[in-house]
Amino acid sequence: MSDVFLEARNISKAYEGVKALRDVSMTIGRGEVHCLVGENGSGKSTLIKIIGGVVAADAGVVVIGGRAHAHLAAIDAIREGIQIIYQDLSLYPNLTVAENISFNQFVERRASFVSWRDVRSIAERALEEIGEQIPLEQIVQDLSVAKRQIVAITRSLTQNARLIIMDEPTSAITKEDVEHLFSVIARLKAKGISTLFISHKLSEVFEIAEVVTILRDGMKVGDFPASELDDAKLTYLMTGQRIQYSPYRFSGEKKAAAPLLEVRGLTRKGQFQDVSFSLWPGEILGLTGLIGSGRTELALALFGLNPPDAGQVFLNGRVVRVRSPEEALRRGIAYLPEDRLTQGLFIGQSIGDNIIITILKKLLGALGLIDPLRRRKTENSWLEELQIKAPSPKVRAWSLSGGNQQRVVLAKWLATDPKVFILDGPTIGIDIASKSNIHQIIRALAERGIAIILISDEIPEVLHNCNRLLVMREGRLVREVADATSVGEEELLTAIGGKLTNKTA
User: Could you tell me where the beta strands, DSSP code E, fall in 179-332?
Assistant: First the structure.
């Protein structure tokens, strides 16, 4: 094992009497790529905040380079070389790449004036250190998420980072960008810089990790060499459950009827071209492809948020034009967006408010006001049906786990009684057990006769939960798999990521 850089010893932390961490210890070696995994609520975020000095532990110490810190402050952690890159990256979107990278240097110096030559040279040296090239004058908000991550990593190097903590860094980037990020992590390792990597995507854990620390319910399950783990073992250690996957079986008898939804030649210039497919009641149709393949743009077109330039949409055999979400809902089409926090929820409002927002007219009483009895009955019925873990519908959405937040978004759209339900990345950022529960809900909806389009770039998700698959690449449907059980992960990955030719895959 490499020399030890950091030890978290016997860390405990409680919030209002609830134990977030109980006697947790972890060791990170110099230049080590270490993964921290666990379900939502397992204590991962609390542990990294304690290591970063953002939160004070109730008990235990953090030892950095042999020096123990019982009360580590954020500035002390930074001076010791610890940098945390959160999911939001904490960059200045209106500043240039060079300004973002060098900003902290000038703050530390307490400089009264800025030398623009120094701004450029600091940024150039930092980018050169990890072999990256990004235009220094480009405004950060104009960069892709992947490029912004590189800027955040580069900025950390200007403060002599020795441990970089990455919190869910791959949740919104393409597979190609993930591979590039992993190459950057490898370069950091070669320089003796450690990485603590937090992810719900087990395939990435196996690809990048040397050591894996597993938390469950605020306690450490253990530290394991990644080579000793596989998907089933890691899932069991994280959840305490053996989660079984079985393919979704669609009844062939239903397919004898006409399709519920039919799309013919749908096109929007620069986004998707000549898309055609059919969807029957009770089907779970998987739509997969890399981020940027046109899959979300297609979903938004079906929901009235991204009008196509050409093509036709049929519902129950009749041509329809869906020009707005209101019109989509009237016709029985619902859409669960990929970003639940900004697009799916009113995060500061209650669970109940979020659920009823789509059906306010249905809850009006005789005087044109919302009937409180009808409202309570609706809210409580959805809490019960989708098993949303909250003491009451009055609880704010921000306080829920990712899995429960997604159930609230599901409830909001299911309350509209949809015939076609488009689910865009329904388990992004959700832990394994919650993913399994969401998948069970989706299957139950299909069994009730709802036609479902499940959009995901996670290959196991579409293979395990869909009866039929469509692959998008560069805005076009390049392959249809009539039976999802007939194709393997490698074959599907090739179809998704291969270079598009004039010939359909």
Answer: 194-198, 211-216, 219-225, 261-268, 272-279, 284-288, 310-315, 318-320
Tokens 């995994």 sit at which residue?
Answer: 37
Tokens of 323: 């020009």
What whole-number distance in Å separates Cα of residue 369 and Cα of residue 481? 49
Q: Given the structure tokens 């599901």, which residue do they identify? A: 410
Count Cβ atoms below 10 Å from residue 374 Cβ, excluding itself. Answer: 14
Task: Give how far Cα 287 sits from Cα of 391, 469, 474, Å.
Answer: 36, 6, 14
Cβ neighbours of 105 (radius 10 Å): 17
Residue-wise pLDDT for 153-187, tens only, equals: 999 988 889 999 998 888 767 777 888 899 999 99
Q: How far apart are the first and last CA of the chain?
A: 46
Q: Which of 125-129, 324-328, 332-336, 498-502 has the lowest mean pLDDT?
A: 498-502
Residue 332: name the closest of 451, 240, 221 by CA.
451
Report residue 333: phi and psi, to 5°.
Answer: -110, 125
Amino acid identity at 451: A
Round to whole Å and give the CA distance between 412 and 405: 11
Q: Greatest CA span in the chain, whole angstroms? A: 76
Find tokens 């055999």 and name the residue: 317
CA distances from 459 to 153, 278, 466, 489 (A): 28, 21, 11, 6
How many distinct helices (H) and strands (E) make up the chain? 16, 20
Over the Cα atoms of the chain, what is R_g? 25
Sign, Cα dihedral of 383, 387, 391, 395 = negative
- The H-or-E segment that residue 398 falls in is none
Q: Is the dihedral of CA 374, 380, 385, 386 positive or negative?
A: positive
**How far out from the chain centre does Cα 441 lie?**
19
